[in-house]
Design brief:
single chain; alpha/beta; Rossmann fold; 2 domains; 5-stranded parallel β-sheet; 44% helix
């Protein structure tokens, strides 16, 4: 499907806004890889684990809204396998295999680490580029005892989709994430101000049909 220039411009606005996030300190206690359909997040997580000299790498995810019909194994299992291939020590790797959304990624990981007597103070969330802002805002709300920063690929929208990703799916996911920044603010995430021009771009994209993951009943 060929997209109109205005659609691509709106998509780039959302991508740039959603991709913003603080990379944080040089060292952290944990890296949390947020599950999803983009398996390259595991590469980002492994790189952050070594770069940030983390003590633990947690791969979190069961089957979510975009993977329940796509994968036969839990997201955490697929991510974990890749992290081992990239050299993450098995005794430093934790799999959280039940989370079905971003809030559960944090809550279930916190519970799992507490069972091991691990109580981190600093952490990096490894995620898709356009998940960065929402990942941080979710972590800050769901697990405020940890000072969170973000690791994600540094790339533009077209560069990201040129690596074999379906641009329509990416737009649908971004539209859903942008809406959740405003709708979930103060409830499941810390409030994040969404500028009016970004919200207008979201509304145009949703009206064009990229609304698969838009919440209908709020």
């Amino acid at each position: 499907m060929k997209l109109e220039n205005r659609t691509l411009e709106d998509a780039q606005r959302l991508f740039d806004f959603l991709s913003e996030g603080d990379e944080g300190p040089e060292t952290v206690d944990i890296v949390l890889a947020m599950g999803g359909q983009d398996l390259e997040v595991a590469d980002t997580a492994a790189a952050a684990f070594f770069d940030k000299k983390a003590q633990w790498l947690i791969c979190s995810g069961g089957f979510g809204k975009d993977t329940s019909a796509l994968f036969r194994e839990e997201e955490a299992v697929l991510y974990g396998r890749r992290c081992l291939e990239l050299g993450v020590p098995e005794d430093r790797l934790v799999l959280e295999r039940s989370a079905a959304n971003s809030g559960e990624n944090f809550r279930f990981t916190q519970e799992l680490l507490a069972q091991r007597g691990v109580f981190p103070r600093t952490g990096v969330v490894a995620c898709k580029p356009y998940m960065a802002r929402r990942a941080w805002s979710t972590g800050a709300k769901q697990w405020p005892e940890v000072s969170w920063s973000v690791a994600r690929p540094r790339c533009g929208l077209l560069e990201y989709v040129d690596l074999g990703r379906d641009i329509n799916t990416v737009l649908e996911l971004m539209v859903g994430d942008l809406q959740r920044l405003r709708v979930y603010g103060g409830r499941f995430q810390v409030p994040v101000e969404v500028p009016e021009d970004i919200w207008a771009a979201y509304e145009r994209l949703a009206a064009e049909g990229f609304d698969r993951y838009v919440i209908r009943e709020i």
